[in-house]
Design a protein that fits this description.
Elements: H1 4-14, E1 21-27, H2 34-41, E2 45-47, H3 55-60, E3 62-67, H4 72-81, E4 87-92, H5 96-107, E5 108-110, E6 116-118, H6 124-130, H7 136-143, E7 148-152, E8 158-165, E9 168-175
Antiparallel strand pairs: 1-3, 1-4, 2-3, 4-7, 5-6, 7-8, 8-9
């Protein structure tokens, strides 16, 4: 979907702060072969669904993966996933275990009637639509220890950088394709 220069710019943007760890929250239902790739490449990761999963559930579950700037897995996610709504990226000063706890807390929510349902916050189409509707408390809950979320805009030539700035959503649009 994108050219090499765009993907290099995306990688540069993701890893722009050496003080932060970059995580991908990936949707197994959108990423072909994700479980196999995790098993083959062995990045640091956790499934966001608790317990032992049946193979068919494991294939569609969301996963949080710690990304390394020049790793094979990171390159695979950037090259294959950008523009294909594979997931979102989060930057945080916390370790993978803490991020797993945070993201797990977001996976199940209650509707108005108190019925539990899955919240696909890790789908960039959901995140970019939902975050602007949040109040300060909801933003705090969604961001948790994350300092920013990065995700594809509706136009995959644009990277959205989202931050919770004292209870207000701050959004930067970064053009990945240079004129």
């Amino acid at each position: 979907m994108a050219n090499e220069a765009m993907m290099a710019r995306l990688s540069e943007q993701l890893f722009s702060d050496p003080e932060m760890t970059v995580y991908a929250v990936l949707d197994g239902a959108s990423v072909p072969g994700l479980v196999r790739k995790l098993w083959e490449v062995k990045p640091k990761y956790y499934c966001l669904f608790p317990g032992e999963l049946e193979p068919d559930m494991a294939e569609v579950a969301p996963y949080v993966v710690e990304l390394e700037p020049d790793s094979q897995f990171t390159q695979w996610v950037i090259d294959g996933g950008w523009g294909n709504h594979w997931g979102i990226f989060a930057s945080a000063p916390e370790d993978l275990r803490k991020m797993r706890g945070h993201f797990r807390s977001l996976v199940k929510v209650m509707d108005e009637a108190g019925t539990p349902m899955y919240f696909r916050f890790y789908d960039p189409r959901v995140m970019r639509t939902f975050l602007p509707t949040c109040n300060a408390e909801e933003l705090s809950e969604l961001f948790g220890p994350s300092t920013s979320y990065r995700l594809e805009a509706e136009d995959p030539n644009v990277l959205l950088c989202l931050r919770n700035d004292a209870g207000e959503l701050h959004t930067d649009e970064i053009k990945l394709a240079r004129a």
